[in-house]
Automatic annotation (TrEMBL):
The chain holds residues 409 to 700 of 700 of the full protein. It comes from the Bacteria. Transmembrane segments: none annotated. Coiled coil: none annotated. This is Bifunctional rhamnulose-1-phosphate aldolase/short-chain dehydrogenase. Signal peptide: none annotated. Belongs to the short-chain dehydrogenases/reductases (SDR) family.
Length: 292
């Protein structure tokens, strides 16, 4: 090779190598996400996943102490510029509207909603009080409606599309013993997501669902009454329960908050640009679904 040409080739190789060493561009850079139940296990893990991809995140929750703790952890890892918190009860119409005003004031808009705030509380049907039924319905069903409605209002004004991810539950598709209120509320979330996918399509708004199986690690749900309420069916030994869920999965693995966050990342990012009205079950492979 003539001397000059050889030099050009080496220079080109150097540039290629440099490119390969450069970190991949952050796929959510400039996006803004509102994560309800953001102080909890799955919500906080999802917020962290989005922050890693360059998003700004507003954590909305009713638990101020947990919000402060999650904020401290995430802002230390990323920056105080990209994380905010708001006390918002998803059942309170005006609190939801005011949280959206806050996020617009802080970050200039919203691109992604993760509707995740939730509880799990149930009983055999003959012992299910109207209060217990309404509690499940108001937080899970009505709460998901209220936060989605505000997101739709904003998405319409912004005219830039948007992505909504519902964290529902495999119990929204499959019946679970002594949990009719929870299962019915979760089923309504899934159907709401499908209706909203249909309504949002012409606006470029995608709405999808992640259905976790039991996520025991980091979840306040499994530290509360849910475990006791299900003692007759599953016992109260949390480690034993984790083992039971692991064993009954095809992959023989526990489902972690980070696994749900990964699906919520896929569904909120451009990786799933052609998906709407769909469900991802994150259950390590549910044998029951195959043997029924
Ligand atoms: P978690 O209790 O750790 O987190 C839920 C968060 O929601 C909490 O921080 C709580 O304070 C908040 N919250 C509750 N009521 C609220 C309200 N009215 N307004 C605003 N925030 C409220 O539980 P998690 O396991 O992270 O659950 C997150 C979601 O995943 C829930 O919707 C739950 O039903 C669903 N899910 C969980 C599991 C599981 O096994 N952990 C399985 C299937 C589905």
């Amino acid at each position: 090779l003539p001397e000059q040409e050889a030099f050009d080739i080496e220079y080109w190789l150097l540039e290629e190598a440099k490119l390969q060493r450069m970190p991949a561009p952050k796929s959510m850079a400039g996006r803004v996400a509102l994560v309800t139940g953001g102080a909890g296990g799955i919500g906080a893990a999802t917020a962290e996943r989005y922050l890693r991809e360059g998003a700004c995140v507003m954590l909305a929750d009713i638990d101020d102490a947990a919000l402060a703790e999650t904020f401290e952890g995430l802002s230390a890892k990323f920056s105080t510029d990209v994380v905010r918190t708001v006390n918002m009860n998803v059942t309170d119409e005006s609190a939801v509207a005011s949280a959206y005003s806050d996020i617009v004031a802080e970050f200039g808009g919203v691109d992604i909603l993760v509707s995740n705030a939730g509880i799990a509380s149930s009983a055999p049907i003959q012992e299910t009080s109207l209060d217990l039924w309404n509690k499940n319905m108001s937080i899970l069903s009505t709460g998901y409606f209220l936060v989605s409605r505000e997101a739709f209002k904003l998405f319409k004004v912004q005219d830039m599309g948007g992505a909504i991810v519902f964290v529902a539950s495999k119990n929204g598709l499959a019946a679970s013993p002594n949990a009719s209120a929870y299962c019915t509320a979760k089923a309504s979330e899934i159907h709401l997501a499908r209706c909203l996918a249909l309504e949002g399509a012409s606006m470029g708004v995608r709405v999808n669902v992640v259905n976790p199986d039991a996520v025991l690690k980091g979840s306040k749900i499994w530290q509360g009454e849910w475990l006791d309420q299900r003692a007759d069916t599953y016992g109260t030994d949390k480690d034993g329960l984790e083992e039971m869920y692991r064993d009954r999965s095809m992959l023989k693995r526990s489902v972690l908050p980070e696994d749900i966050a990964e699906a919520a990342y896929f569904l909120a990012s451009d990786l799933s640009a052609k998906s709407t009205g769909n469900i991802i079950n994150v259950d390590a492979g549910n044998k029951e679904a195959f043997t029924r």
